[in-house]
Amino acid sequence: MPIQIVRNDITKMEVDAIVNAANPTLMGGGGVDGAIHRAAGPGLLEECMHLGRCPEGEAKITGGHNLHCKYIIHTVGPIWEGGKYGEKETLESCYMRSLELAKEHGCETVAFPLISAGAYGYPRAEALRVAIDSVSRFLEDNDMTVYIVIFDRASFEIGEKLFRDIEEYIDDRYADEHAESRESRLLRSEMPRKNIFGSIMPTASADMAPAPKPAASSLDEAMKQLDESFSEMLLRKIDEEGMTDAQCYKKANIDRKLFSKIRSDKNYRPSKPTAIAFAIALELPLDETREMLEKAGFALSHASKFDIIIEYFIEHGNYNIFEINEALFAFDQSLLGA
Ligand code: APR
User: Fold this and answer.
1) In whole angstroms, what is the distance from residue 65 CA to residue 321 CA?
2) 33, 133, 176, 239: which one is catalytic?
3) Alpha helices in 30-181 (DSSP H)
4) Would 75 disulfide with which of 94, 202, 223, 333, CB 3.0-4.6 Å?
């Protein structure tokens, strides 16, 4: 999964490079800067003394010292002054310059804290958005695994309105699923399904359902009736959408190696998050998402918060997998991609 949001202490991350939210002196400080210097040991400060100052938006690299990483990349984020003094561009530059340095040093895995989202006062939801957008832009042309490390729940918001919206959407469905008796559930399954806008969702009625195939006369015949597999449908939809393979798997937050496995094996069985990630990348409507999932042996269920959150984003036409992952993370669910 090229971009992962994880809850951890960045000094515990076992990656090629961790990024430090430093100040221009590079002489250490509080927050993540202090934690990294404490964990790395005095040798880090010794090395930093020879680096000189680091301007805002720029990055400099040292060894990992006592940390579980080869390198520490020190970058200096903007101090938030209301958003009208180029803070966003400076923050974007912190991520891009750090990633370029990591690439120059052959790093395959990099971990970032939420730069500027602490003492420097950058609003956390926006700081996360800039992090995700900058990293995903870099990964369009580069293969790397990047972790956005969230230190504590308090430092993680997806925006109050969105969080509340999703919470209500879940409550409407999750509660029903878990509270109603079996009889009313059966009754409900006969009732027309409504989408969030109140209009009745088309149901697969007899005249809409494909005519049942005649029973196969032999095993050979049955094998011929096998439906299109998951990977066959995936490749067909990529062609129909006029996408390249790379555009699809990057939009799905899937790494290149896994995609080539799926491409080369028509009977490949993906995990559910992987199957959904491709449906999101292809921007499939709910019914086609269900069809694609079915081919991988899965279904969307209102007994699962993960599924309901996916349904929420598809119903709202929001196919930004990184926004969906932020929401999944905020609700303690596994993330999309692989
Ligand atoms: N692991 C991961 N993230 C952490 C950790 C940790 N051990 N400690 C703190 N964080 C998170 C904070 O919760 C925040 O979301 O890092 C983010 C950045 O917070 P700060 O460390 O305060 O960094 P920043 O806002 O960029 O301010 C930089 O603070 O420590 C000084 O010397 C530093 O002057 C510089 C300023």
Assistant:
1) 35
2) 33
3) 31-40, 42-48, 87-104, 124-139, 160-179
4) 94
Round to whole Å and give the CA distance between 61 and 72.
6
CA of 105 from ligand 1 middle (Å) equals 24
Q: What is the pLDDT of residue 130?
A: 95
Q: Specify the residue for token string 């390198």.
A: 71
Q: How far apart are alpha carbons 2 and 112 in whole angstroms?
A: 13
CATH, domain range 3-155: 3.40.220.10
123 lines ligand 1 (CB under 6 A): no
CB 151 less than 6 A from any atom of ligand 1: yes
User: In the prediction, which pLDDT does 198 show?
Assistant: 46
77, pLDDT greater than 70: yes
- The residue nearest atom 24 of ligand 1, judged by CA position, is 116
**Of all protein residues, whose CA lies closest to atom 18 belonging to ligand 1?**
118
Nearest C-alpha to atom 34 of ligand 1 is from which residue? 23
- Please give the helix or strand (H or E) that residue 75 lies within, else none: strand 71-76
In whole angstroms, give the CA distance from residue 54 to residue 51: 8
Cβ of residue 120 lying under 6 Å from some atom of ligand 1: yes
pLDDT tens string 248-281: 999 999 999 999 999 999 999 999 999 999 999 9
Residue 221: predicted pLDDT: 66
> What span, in angstroms and rounded, lies between the C-alpha atoms of 271 and 237?
19
Closest CA to 153 of 163, 165, 166, 168: 163
- Select the more confidently predicted residue: 187 or 276: 276
Strand arrangement of the beta sheet that strand 71-76 belongs to: 3-7, 145-150, 109-112, 17-22, 71-76, 59-63
Residue 143 designated active-site? no
The domain limits of the chain are 3-155, 159-179+227-338
